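User: For a reading group we're discussing how well predicted structures match intuition. Take Phospholipid/cholesterol/gamma-HCH transport system ATP-binding protein. Before you show the prediction, I'll give you the sequence so everyone sees exactly what went in.
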Amino acid sequence: MGVDIKIEHLTKSFGKQLIWGDVSLTVPAGEICVMLGPSGTGKSVLLKTLIGLLKPDEGSVIIEGTDLVSCSEKDLYEIRKLFGVLFQDGAMFGSMNLYDNVAFPLREHTKKSESQIRDIVMEKMDLVGLIGAEDKLPGEISGGMRKRAGLARALVLDPEIVLFDEPDSGLDPVRTAFLNQLIVDLNAQIDATFLIVTHDINTSRTVPDNIGLLYHKHLAMFGPREMLLSSEEPVVRQFLNAQRVGPIGMSEEKDADQLAAEKDMDLPPLPPIPLQLEPSNGIPRRSQRPPGEWCRTNGVTPPPGSFLPDSVLAGGVKA
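Assistant: Thanks. Here is the predicted 3D structure of Phospholipid/cholesterol/gamma-HCH transport system ATP-binding protein, as structure tokens, for the group to look at:
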């Protein structure tokens, strides 16, 4: 079972440059959450702040009753053991083979014997589909395999929280689809709390239980997947549906003239909300909600065609 992360009034600046301010949200225990935002909005900075690599100017990050911002270095060291982190490029040690890369946290943080370490390492490598590649060096494998090796290392201490920093970065759509399925399957198996930073819209629309959007130095919205995918909030609608019409421009914000020119333009209809990706065994995850539950509970009419299988939509059947 994962643990929740309570983020309260978090503010971070670098010098005079405000990255984001007054960010408050709770990442629910055991659920998959995605954090989105245009480039440069501080998504990776948020992840580094959550594990104590960066200190915020204000606010709190509370995990199991401990505030990571104000706690002692000793307490921070212990809390970090709850985390596993998949970095953008895998962050593998180039001179170590994959086995030793995955074993490194066990050798560093535990007193387990080498036979115990081998059992754990091989279990995690099997989870991510890397059995048979343990003797390869990071430079001898593809980017997708490095990501999976990095994920095995992130899981090796059985973390309660797993952070993913753009796991789809540098991967083609097919490998991204395989990685998305792997993330869902892992969440079903280990029931940990997952927080994913990504730019991939398909990932955001199909994988998480909850979505957050950082924009213009604040948290624009955070909540259940269906809430954001049915939202008419301009920046949320524009980003999650990859549209040009809206407040986001080539920089971060469009100027007043651009927005005025778009004022009377007809927005394209919201696309259907897809079914959420299920574990490969077909058994729903503990945190997975029935399709359309949030919309029904909150009296929201989803876009036509929502929650239909891809095969039905491809055949032209409409809701």
